[in-house]
Design a protein that fits this description.
Arc Repressor Mutant, subunit A, 2 domains, 77% helix, mainly alpha, Tetracycline Repressor, domain 2, single chain, 221 residues
Length: 221
């Protein structure tokens, strides 16, 4: 009986050790790709920096496109694993909030923090995508997933308040999708020097003005 307990303990310990090693590989890849770019970072480089052999890297994470996917998913989720949109804390907060303007403000805050993590990775993807079909396909997948999530988000907002007259859910979702993009974040915070606070405030205010009727605009965060 004691031996069985020991085996369970050892299995749990090995699993935790593998998870830690896996995360070390992803962290090493992120650091190298940010420094060198995607194409100039080899699997051997990543394995060396993570202090593992290449076979271990492949077994725990996968090939380089899979590693990049993990980097992107962690940047979006703000965790050491991919978190589906419906399980993220800010999504729960948005759904619990009864006021439409506040829903938009909560999401603006979430976008500000997500883009702070994701924008540097987006630069890596843009550099690699023209010559790396797998990278271009990954970014397209993420973009389309974001568009679908925006339709869900806008339907939730519309349940709390009618949208601005003449505005459909699909068109409103496209507006949110455009303004929460990495491109807009980088244009304002990097190219124009806005602070993250300024970006967040502008985003919430702009969404409220574009999506909600005039009578709702006065209700600010």
């Amino acid at each position: 009986m004691p031996r069985a307990v020991k085996r369970r303990y050892d299995a749990s310990s090995r699993k935790a050790q593998s998870a830690a090693t896996r995360q070390r590989i992803i962290d090493a890849a992120r650091t190298l790709m940010l420094q060198r770019g995607y194409r100039a970072t080899s699997v051997a480089n990543i394995a060396a920096k993570a202090n593992v052999n290449v076979d271990t890297l492949y077994a725990l994470v996968g090939r380089k496109p899979t590693i990049l996917r993990e980097i992107v998913e962690q940047a979006i989720s703000g965790a050491d694993h991919a978190v589906p949109a419906e399980q993220r804390d800010y999504v729960a907060a948005i759904r619990a909030e009864p006021d439409a303007a506040r829903k938009l403000a909560i999401y603006a805050s979430a976008v500000r923090h997500t883009q702070a993590r994701l924008a540097p990775i987006a630069r890596i993807i843009r550099e690699a995508a023209p010559s790396e079909p797998s990278v271009a396909a990954l970014w397209h997948e993420i973009t389309e997933r974001r568009a679908a999530n925006m339709r869900t988000f806008v339907r939730d907002v519309a349940e709390a308040s009618p949208l601005r007259e003449g505005l459909t859910v699909d068109r409103a979702a496209d507006i949110v999708w455009t303004l929460n993009s990495t491109d807009v974040y980088l244009l304002l915070t990097s190219d124009r020097g806005w602070t993250p606070d300024e970006f967040e405030g502008w985003l919430a205010d702009t969404w409220q003005r574009l999506l909600l009727p005039d009578r709702r605009r006065a209700r600010r965060a």
